[in-house]
Amino acid sequence: MTKLIVGLGNPGDEHEEDRHNAGFWFVDALAKQLGVRFESEKRFHGKVAKAKWEGEDLFLLKPSTYMNLSGQSVGALCRFHKMTPADILVVQDELDLKPGTARLKLGGGTGGHNGLKDIQAHLSTPEYWRLRLGIGHPRDLAGDGRPMDVADYVLRRPQLAEQKLIDASIENGLQILSLFLKGDTQTAMMELHSKG
């Protein structure tokens, strides 16, 4: 069973509503659903919530490091609790998926995502689960023809219509989580991927 769900984002009130914090939004929603609270844990460089799922311990983690150092937090918690990469689900924002889309996969590249790069470096493998929440790409924005810098885009708040779509993809991810945690990953993927 997955023992750790990591939401990726940047700490601080000024980043709370950034697109880059979609992973935080997911684990916050999950913690609320499970009735658990995040507590700061210095040794894990993050905020941790501990829940029970089918009688097993399930940890939720929000790294307090900035995104590009997320692996420091994930690595510390995994070493302490003797978790393997297969025990981990990392929830991240994904530029290459449109808002409202969520995809589940095991392993693969980082797609230039600095949080994933650092996690992969600390785990010495890309073989961990990812839940990718679409935030769209700035090149898809209709505007004045000037492309927005990717860093500016991910560190900005989504428009209301986008936010509603991202919230829906988070809800879809939460709905398949039970299947995923039971180990029925194929059904979880089929159900999630059929939702757009």
UniProtKB/TrEMBL annotation:
TRNA binds at H15, Y66, N68, N114. The keyword Oxidoreductase does not apply. GO terms for cellular component: cytoplasm. It comes from the Bacteria. Its main location: cytoplasm. Its EC number is 3.1.1.29. GO terms for biological process: protein quality control for misfolded or incompletely synthesized proteins; rescue of stalled ribosome. The record marks N10 as: Discriminates between blocked and unblocked aminoacyl-tRNA. One of its GO terms (molecular function) is peptidyl-tRNA hydrolase activity. Keywords: Cytoplasm, Hydrolase, RNA-binding, tRNA-binding. It is an enzyme of class 3 (hydrolase). The keyword Zinc-finger does not apply. Pfam families: Pept_tRNA_hydro. CDD domains: PTH. It catalyses: an N-acyl-L-alpha-aminoacyl-tRNA + H2O = an N-acyl-L-amino acid + a tRNA + H(+). The record marks D93 as: Stabilizes the basic form of H active site to accept a proton. It is found in: Cytoplasm. The active site is at H20 (proton acceptor). Belongs to the PTH family. Hydrolyzes ribosome-free peptidyl-tRNAs (with 1 or more amino acids incorporated), which drop off the ribosome during protein synthesis, or as a result of ribosome stalling. Catalyzes the release of premature peptidyl moieties from peptidyl-tRNA molecules trapped in stalled 50S ribosomal subunits, and thus maintains levels of free tRNAs and 50S ribosomes. HAMAP family: Pept_tRNA_hydro_bact. Monomer. This is Peptidyl-tRNA hydrolase.
